[in-house]
Write a sequence for this structure.
C-alpha cells in the first residue's frame, strides 16, 4: 500500500478535525493513515439527544471507512494510539508501531472533572456513546423505579436530575431532559406526579452560555425557567456520592443523577505524548499549528493549545474543522516547497438550542432567538451530519418528536454482557 | 389503583404472548398488572437484523408503557419475577410480592445450549438485544482486526463465522451475514480478500427448515449455496473454545465467531416456578392452557407445554399470540361464569427469508419462493412491528439497504461501561 517514495502522513483521531484533515489530503502526493480506537466518526453535538432518547446511537455514529471509501491514498486502522516516539517518528499503538513523516494529532477532548473523583465515579459525562447510552438508561430507569418507590423522599431523589455547567451542552441537556419528562414520559406514567420532578442546572459563574451576548443569556435563562428547569448561578459542586449532590457552602441536594457538562480537557493521549502542554493539557502549537520543536507534528482541535487575541481557542467543532484545513494545507505546502500559512480562526457564530421552537444564535453582529434560531440550529446540524442516510433518519426522528410529542428511543438496554471475544 | 372488589390478573412477560393477553383483557372487569424485567417489548424475529447491522436496537424495541398507554385497567411494573407462591397466590419479584387472583405466565424462551458450557461461554445466542449487539460488535470487530493481522491462518479464523442450527434463525442469520460481508463490507475494506471469508451453517439433521416441505428445503439450500454459505448436514458441535469449533468425529474448524441458533427452552422462571414441567422445561398445561392443579394459573407461548396432534407446539410467535387470546378469554369466561374454551392452534403458515429477494413460505397448501415470498415476508414483518414509527424506520432502513447495498448500523459500540446507578 505504501510506496517508499511517497511521504507518509499519519492522523490520530477521526473526529471533526482528523476526518476533515484526511479529506483535505485526498489529492496530496502522500499516503495517509488515519487511526482511531473506534470504527466510527461520532457527531458529538447531538450526543445529548441520544442521552434524552431523541435519536439512536447509530444515527450519529458513522463508519469511518464508509465516509472515506473513495479516498484512494487513505488507509484506516482501528486501534488505540498510546504514545509517540518523536525521535524515531513512530506512533505507538496497541497494534504495533506506525512510522510517519508527518503527524496530525487530532485526538479531541475528554470530560474534565477537575479532580472531583466522586463525581467522575458516580456522575455522567457526555463525550461518547457509552456516556450517552448509560445516561439514557439511568434517566429512564430512575423514572421507572420511582413509580415503585413508596418513600416520597427516595422517590423525589430518583426524580431529581442535576445538570452541572451552563455552557451549550448543559443548557441543551437540561432543556431536552425537561421536555422528555414533561412532554413525553408523563403520557406513559399516569401516576407520575410532575411536581416531584426536578431538573436543576448548576452554573459556577453568574452567566449561562458565557460566549453569548447578555441579551441572549437572559432569553436562555427565561426559556429554561419556562420549561421548569431550576437554574442556579454561583453554584459549585464539591461532591456527588450517587445519592446526594454537595455544593460549596455545604448545601446538599438529594439526587440520584448528575450530568457533568462543566469541563473538557484534551484527551489523555496529549498528556502521554511527552510534548509541551498548555492549559487543559492541550499541546502547545505555533502559528502554523506545528509543535515548535517538531515541525513535522501538527496538532489541531481540542488537543491544540493555540492562542488568538491572547486566549486559547475554545474546544468546539469549528476550531477543529478550520485547523484541519490549515494543517493539511501546510503539509501539502511543505511537500511542494511552498511557504506555510498561519492559522487564523474565524468565528462562524454560536448556536444553542433550548428545546422545542427555542434556540439562541449569534452570527457576527446578528442575534437570533426563538423559532427562527431553532430552525437555523436544526438546518445546520442536519446539514453537517455525515451521510445522507443519517441526515434523513435524524430529520424523521425530529419531525416525529415535534409533531407527536414523542421520543423514539425509550428502551432501557442495560448492558452488553457479552463482550467482543477474540 | 386496585379496588378490593375487582379481581387482579397478573401477567409475567411482555413478549408476544403477555402483551397480547394484556390487550385482550382491556375490557375485562379486572385490574391487570403486567410485569417484565425490561421496559420494552422486543420484536424478536428481527433480532438477527440487529446482529447483522441492518436495523438499530431501538427499531425493534418499543416501550411497554407506550404500547399500553390507553389501557385504563393496566399497570406496568418493570421488575424481574423470581418465583411464584401458588398457595398464597403471590408472584415473587425483586420489587416485592404481588398478589394475584389469576396469573398468566408468558415468560418466553431462552437459548438452550444443551449443556455445552464452552459454547455458552464463548458463543453467541440470539434471544435478546444484548446478544444481538454483542454479536454485531463481534462480527464488525473481527473484520476490522483481520485487516491488521499478518498471519493468514489467524486472519482466516477471524473471518470464519459458524452458524449452528438450520432452523429459521440459523438460515436467516447465515444469509444476512453473507450479504453483510459480501455486498456491504467489501466496499469499505478494499484489502479484504473475500475468498478468506467463510460462513458455515451447521445442521445436526439432514434438513434445513424442518417444518418446510422438501421442495422449499432444497430451494433454501441452493439459495444459501449461491450466497456462498457452506451448508453442512449431520454436523454436531461438541466444543467451542473461542478459537476453534469442534464437531462430533473430532473435526476442527478454526473460527472466532460461533452463533448458536440450535435450541430454545422455556425461560428459567418456568423451572423455578415449582410447577410440573414437560420437555424443554416448559410448564405442562391442560386443554384450556391452565396448570392442572392450579386452574387460576394460565401458561402461554414458549413457556407452555401444550400437546397437539401428539407433539408439543413449536416455540414461535403465532403460538404465543393465539394462546394469549384463549387464556385471556378463559379468564373473562371464569369471571362471567361461562364455560372455558379449549385451545386449538391454527398454523398460519411459516416463512423464512434467506436474503435479498429470497425467501420461502408455506401457507396451508400453498408454497411460495423467491421474490414474491420475500415481499410477503417483508410485509408481514413490517405490519406486525409494534408502533407506526418503528414500522416506518425499519421500512426505510430496508429500502436503503435494498437500493444502495448498504447497512446502516455498522458502528462498533463495545460496552456501556457506566451502568445504571442508584
Amino acid at each position: 500500500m505504501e510506496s517508499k517514495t511517497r511521504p507518509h502522513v499519519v492522523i490520530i483521531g477521526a473526529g471533526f478535525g482528523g476526518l476533515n484533515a484526511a479529506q483535505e489530503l485526498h489529492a496530496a502526493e502522500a499516503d495517509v493513515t488515519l487511526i482511531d480506537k473506534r470504527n466510527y466518526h461520532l457527531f458529538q453535538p447531538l450526543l445529548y439527544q441520544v442521552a434524552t432518547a431523541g435519536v439512536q446511537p447509530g444515527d450519529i455514529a458513522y463508519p469511518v471507512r464508509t465516509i472515506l471509501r473513495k479516498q484512494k491514498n487513505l488507509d484506516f486502522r482501528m486501534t488505540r494510539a498510546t504514545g509517540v516516539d518523536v525521535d524515531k517518528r513512530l506512533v505507538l499503538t496497541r497494534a504495533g508501531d506506525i512510522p510517519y513523516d508527518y503527524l496530525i494529532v487530532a485526538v479531541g477532548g475528554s470530560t474534565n472533572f477537575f479532580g472531583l473523583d466522586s463525581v467522575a465515579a458516580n456522575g455522567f459525562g457526555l463525550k461518547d456513546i457509552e456516556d450517552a447510552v448509560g445516561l439514557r438508561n439511568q434517566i429512564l430507569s430512575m423514572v421507572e423505579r420511582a413509580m415503585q418507590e413508596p418513600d416520597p423522599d427516595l422517590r423525589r431523589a430518583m426524580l431529581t436530575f442535576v445538570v452541572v455547567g451552563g455552557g451549550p451542552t448543559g443548557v441543551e441537556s437540561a432543556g431536552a431532559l425537561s421536555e422528555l419528562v414533561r412532554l413525553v414520559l408523563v403520557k406513559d406514567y399516569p401516576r407520575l406526579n410532575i411536581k416531584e420532578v426536578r431538573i436543576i442546572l448548576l452554573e459556577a459563574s453568574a452567566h449561562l452560555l458565557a460566549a453569548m451576548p447578555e441579551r441572549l443569556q437572559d432569553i436562555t435563562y427565561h426559556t429554561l425557567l419556562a420549561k421548569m428547569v431550576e437554574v442556579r448561578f454561583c453554584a459549585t459542586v464539591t461532591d456527588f456520592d450517587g445519592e446526594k449532590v454537595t455544593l460549596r457552602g455545604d448545601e446538599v441536594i438529594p439526587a440520584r443523577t448528575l450530568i457533568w457538562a462543566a469541563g473538557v480537557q484534551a484527551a489523555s493521549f496529549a498528556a502521554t505524548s511527552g510534548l509541551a502542554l498548555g492549559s487543559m493539557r492541550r499541546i502547545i502549537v505555533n502559528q502554523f499549528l506545528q509543535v515548535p520543536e517538531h515541525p513535522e507534528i501538527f496538532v489541531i482541535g481540542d488537543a491544540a493549545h493555540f492562542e488568538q487575541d491572547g486566549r486559547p481557542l475554545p474546544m468546539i467543532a469549528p476550531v477543529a474543522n478550520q485547523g484541519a484545513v490549515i494543517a493539511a494545507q501546510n503539509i501539502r505546502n511543505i511537500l511542494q516547497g511552498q511557504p506555510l500559512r498561519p492559522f487564523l480562526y474565524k468565528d462562524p457564530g454560536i448556536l444553542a438550542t433550548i428545546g422545542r421552537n427555542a434556540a439562541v444564535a449569534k452570527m457576527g453582529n446578528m442575534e437570533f432567538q426563538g423559532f427562527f434560531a431553532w430552525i437555523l440550529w436544526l438546518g445546520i446540524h442536519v446539514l453537517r451530519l455525515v451521510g445522507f442516510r443519517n441526515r434523513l433518519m435524524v430529520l424523521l426522528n425530529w419531525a416525529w418528536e415535534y409533531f407527536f410529542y414523542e421520543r423514539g428511543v425509550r428502551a432501557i438496554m442495560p448492558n452488553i454482557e457479552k463482550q467482543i471475544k477474540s
About this structure: Chain B is about 35% helix and 25% strand.
